[in-house]
Amino acid sequence: MNIAIVILNWNGKALLKQFLPSVVTYSEEASIYVADNASTDDSVNYIKTHFPSISILQNSSNKGYAGGYNEALRSLKEEVFVLLNSDVAVTQDWLAPIEKAFTQDATLAAAQPKIKDVNRPEYFEYAGAAGGYIDQLGYPFCRGRIFTTIEKDTGQYDDAVSIFWASGACLAVRRDDFLHLGGFDEDLFAHQEEIDLCWRLQLQGKTIRYLPESTVFHVGGATLATQNTAKTFYNFRNSLLVLVKNHPKKRVIFLLFIRLLLDALAGLQFLSQGNPSHFVAIIRAHLSFYALFPKFWKKRTSHTHSFRYYRCKSVVWKYYFQKKRLFNNGY
């Protein structure tokens, strides 16, 4: 099976310098590409000079995560794409479980490895941990990471399981499935594109899996800091847009009403914590959501296959009111 590792870059010379060596060293069985989002630093020249075996896919402009990958991947012919953040260090034999899983299961459309923290190697990392789910209100969470509580990896999630979404930090996806659905939704620009893609894949009868035999280490927040208000804006807005696009029609309006109330509470919490800029980001997210609502409603497609939320009805209730911080503690 042919595998393409594709790293999206935008002015990321420092990250490439730090993390590309592990990718080159431990990925001999794959073709490696860097998709450059019209960088203005000398990161492209750095790659050409120090890593001549890596192919450059030059995008016409900075189209974010979604548009950047869509433009780059159209020209590739490998059977499986591994979309790898530029701030990820890989490990020896990390690709073998991915290749095996896609070879053995024709329904497998996307997968992720175990994602751990570069700076705290014994802990999972926020963006993906041991596989993603969403609750019945559409809130995403992970095995090993509920909101801001991140678990230490003690082998508690070493089972290969089906998940709802695979992390965009290291997302393996079958080429034909990705292109058949038109790739990522570029209107999202950044954040939660992988959730939308995995949701659509499941509506086509495909499966998403977590592969613990493969391990990578992620910095997290290197390209957009956790405390950046842009992250708050995109996460709140895109979570609602993805629901409008993919959730069953008979419940989506009611669900959005509940989510808007909970978002208001989140905004008040930011204010109480002395973070008015994030409160404003939520307001901006909602205004943008209302403007995009008609467009995303038109994107809805018929649900040819069913899907299952995780059994947890509300991760917000369990985490904040029942004080259940760990995935294995009642989720």
Task: Give the structure's gist in a few sentences.
The protein has 331 residues and is an alpha/beta fold. It has ten helices and 13 strands. Strands 1, 2, 3, 4, 5, 6, 11, 12 and 13 form a nine-stranded mixed sheet that branches.
Principal-axis shape = globular
Q: How do the SSEs run, as a string of H and E?
A: EHEHEHEEHEEEEEEEHHEHHHH
For the record, the CATH architecture of the largest domain stands as Alpha-Beta Complex
Structural class call reads alpha/beta
Percent in helix = 25-40%
Q: Count of helical segments?
A: 10
Please mark out the parts with pLDDT under 50 across 5 or more consecutive residues, or reply none.
none
- What is the CATH fold-level name of the largest domain? Spore Coat Polysaccharide Biosynthesis Protein SpsA, Chain A
CATH superfamily of the largest domain: Spore Coat Polysaccharide Biosynthesis Protein SpsA, Chain A
Strand content bin: 15-25%
Computed Rg: 19 Å
Total individual domains = 2
Q: Main beta sheet: strand number and arrangement?
A: 9 strands, mixed
Q: What's the CATH class of the largest domain, please?
A: Alpha Beta
In round numbers, the mean pLDDT is 93
Description of the molecule:
The two termini are 36 Å apart. This protein is an alpha/beta fold and 331 residues long. It folds into two domains: 216 residues, Spore Coat Polysaccharide Biosynthesis Protein SpsA, Chain A (Alpha-Beta Complex); 76 residues, no CATH class. It contains ten helices and 13 strands. α6 runs parallel beside α7 and α8 runs antiparallel to α9. 39% of the residues lie in helices and 19% in strands. The radius of gyration is 19 Å and the shape is globular. The relative contact order is 0.14. Strands 1, 2, 3, 4, 5, 6, 11, 12 and 13 form a nine-stranded mixed sheet that branches.
